[in-house]
Amino acid sequence: MTVQKILLIDDDPVIRNLISGILRKRGYHVSLAKEGQEGLRVVKSIKPDLVIADFQMPGMSGIDVLNHIKEIYPAMPVIILTAHGDATLTIQSMQTGAFDFIEKPVKPKELLDAVKNGLNTVEAVRHKTEGMVSREETRDSNLMVGKSSLMREIFKNIGRISQSNVGVLITGETGTGKERLARLIHQSGSAQPGPLTILNCNTLTDDQLLNAFWVSDEETASPEYGRASIILDGVGGLPPAMQIRLLDILNRKTGDSRTASMPRLISITSQDINQLVMDGLFMKELFFKMKIISLHIPPLRQRKDDIPDLVKHLMQELNPVLNKNVTQLEEGVFQMLKSYDWPGNVQELKNVLMQAMVLSHGEILEKKNIHIETVEKGVPESTGFEKPPKSLAEMEKEHIAAVLDYVQWSKQEASGLLGIARPTLNAKIEKYGLTKK
Asked: Any bridge partners for residue 364, and if so which?
């Protein structure tokens, strides 16, 4: 077994002797340096697996050392030591890319735990045990991912219907990605997609419905536009009066000479619409008019083999949103995620990943930062009520507000905890209309 190399940089001989003794007893190979410049020379010479650097040293601070190391070896974990622990210093260290931050006097268990965790990330990088998301890779243009047989069949059907203009009904539990699939249908086909209108059926008004078809008519008839689509979100909750209105519009359009150019209607719902028809809550004629093609997105618990692809895809989406560069996964992450049934489906997976990425050290998504809260075993029964999941903007607004309240509106501390620059924080405060309580 290869002995792991650790470099300790500290100008205090007592600290050097204490820490090196603790580490050597655990079998680590420890090299020593008295100040920053010497430490950087050792880094280039032996390329240690991990560096421990004191924050306050003559000539070059631990933060300066950290910055130089990250320029040479971005993945090398660096632990900062300090006798002057405070929130600002901790935040500064973590923002700069420190793996961990330990206060003096050093507690052996805390030190050894930090070192072990840091070296585990080195192994994850070295062996690439469970794949990684390339930072050179552009974000996938596909809105949906999945290689399971269930998802492959859905993608095949999209290919079959992409050139036609038939109505599509998409069903599936909340959080499975019905709107994403609807957008993918809209974007598929040989021609450039035209305008896309999304209507929330729970709050839909007569004017909104009429305007959607009227605008789409004008745009679809214009040669510079591709085929338009209208997405009816939550169609199972469409009130009876609106069902009649929609059926009337569809019937008139079916008899129109411009039927071939009418917008594609894509309806999505989490409810059992067949049951609604049987119960007399949804018009049978409208149901058959909408569902020429029916696609059902299976819940995530039925396609757990898609989790690795989903995780990589979601990480690519979330990195720029969270101002992070998390590209790799600690060993065992996929196994951990596959052991859970995900009642909230892909949306719940996305929320869990978001939290883990915010808390991650550097480029590694670690198991300890994955927090899955199981409310109850099994899958909750449908409530017969559709409530769309929160958008990223809503979640970001709530999170920023909570952080600002936590630090009593200290923008310096808040920007550090959020991992964003102060001007960016100010812009988001203004964007979301946040005020101090």
From this structure: 328, 361
